[in-house]
Amino acid sequence: MSNTKQQEGKAKLPYEQTHEYKKLTKKIQFKTEELQRFYYDILGVEKYPLEKITEMLNDGKHIYSNLSTHYYHSRENEMKDYMRRFAMYQKYIEKKGYSHDRDNAMARVISLNRFNLDYGNLYLHIYAFIPAIELLGSEEQVKYWVPLANDFKITGSYAQTELGHGSDVQGLQTSATYDVNTKEIVFNSPTIESTKFWPGGLGKSSTHAVVYAQLISQGKKHGVHAFIIQIRDLQTHKPLQGIEVGDVGSKIALVHNDNGYLRFNNFRVAKSCHLSKYVDLSDDGTVTEKVKDSTRLVYGGMLKLRVNIVKII
Ligand SMILES: Cc1cc2nc3c(=O)[nH]c(=O)nc-3n(C[C@H](O)[C@H](O)[C@H](O)COP(=O)(O)OP(=O)(O)OC[C@H]3O[C@@H](n4cnc5c(N)ncnc54)[C@H](O)[C@@H]3O)c2cc1C
């Protein structure tokens, strides 16, 4: 039986009842079912068949929110509403036995998207923070951090971009200086341009961040490296001493995402924060590449995130 026939007589999905949807579908000159089928085919029907997505949407109606009713919400309410619905969504997919299937990121985004839950303050946690640890962390680091993040015991942001350095990642100025006496890394934001700016989920929500900074050890610069850093207290949620963090303010779009800024003032973290799958920082401060051109691999985190965004478009 065709999917169209299968769906006939079924209750309409929430988005199908909106004024905008009805208006749009009246104007459309082509068969929407065919487009829909094509759309889901390229996502991998065997894993996420249309019937399963439709079933999810019907079962999870309580999570869905019609955004046309949000026009007059305050930003605070938008963020609270997002978090409330994300928590419901999380419980729902756990109960259903679905996973955060990041290997098939598109399928997951589609489901977040369908519930109007895309690009909120936990988007980066799932699509940039955890993947960056998986990509750049040693086996031991992945084993320690990823379960904490998957269980939402910590939530993370991805802090690469600075006010003065976006595409020019090599030019980042946040410094990470290894102190051989204490076996700690000291983070500093030496200039205004070095202020981390834009990272999603950073302004108010995240307890941790993967931070990109220039590693300095034995008095030498070693290029941009990635570090996992706790930025807020897990009980009080207040920024730790030496951290200045906040929200970049109102935006036209993505109001439910607390894109943030971050500055360091002699902020000390144990050496183990250095993500060391491809490059090692030894106790005496020697930096050894485990693979050739390891610093290029550091850019993989953002690359993965952007590839996902291109796939969505
Ligand atoms: C909504 C939003 C969310 C974001 N979230 C995050 C996040 O979670 N984490 C994070 O780290 N960052 C984040 N960013 C930052 C984003 O990654 C940067 O904006 C991006 O890397 C571009 O940097 P930039 O804005 O400084 O622009 P620039 O690098 O200054 O670029 C400006 C323009 O110049 C062009 N350009 C730059 N260099 C060259 C060149 N060499 N040759 C030719 N043209 C060039 C660019 O294509 C662009 O059109 C976010 C940004 C936005 C807008």
What does this structure look like?
The chain is built from ten helices and eleven strands. The relative contact order is 0.12. Strands 1, 2, 3, 5, 6 and 9 form a six-stranded mixed sheet that branches. Strands 4-8-7 form a three-stranded antiparallel sheet, with no helix packed on it. A two-stranded antiparallel ribbon has the order 10-11. It has two domains: 9-118, no CATH class; 154-312, Butyryl-CoA Dehydrogenase, subunit A, domain 2 (Beta Barrel), CATH 2.40.110.10. With 313 residues, it is an alpha+beta fold. The chain starts with a helix and ends with a helix. It is elongated and about 70 Å long. The structure holds flavin-adenine dinucleotide (FAD).
What are the key terms here?
alpha+beta; 11 strands; binds flavin-adenine dinucleotide; six-stranded mixed β-sheet; elongated; disordered N terminus; 2 domains; 313 residues; Acyl-oxidase family protein; fatty acid metabolism
Task: Write a brief caption for the model.
With 313 residues, the chain is α+β, with helices and mostly antiparallel strands.
Q: What is the residue-mean pLDDT, rounded to a whole number?
A: 84
Report the CATH superfamily of the largest domain. Butyryl-CoA Dehydrogenase, subunit A, domain 2
Largest sheet: number of strands, sense, barrel closure? 6 strands, mixed
Helix count, DSSP H or I runs of 4 or more residues: 10
CATH topology of the largest domain: Butyryl-CoA Dehydrogenase, subunit A, domain 2
- CATH top level assignment of the largest domain: Mainly Beta
Cofactor: FAD
Family: Belongs to the acyl-CoA oxidase family.
Main location: other
Keywords: FAD, Fatty acid metabolism, Flavoprotein, Lipid metabolism, Oxidoreductase, Peroxisome
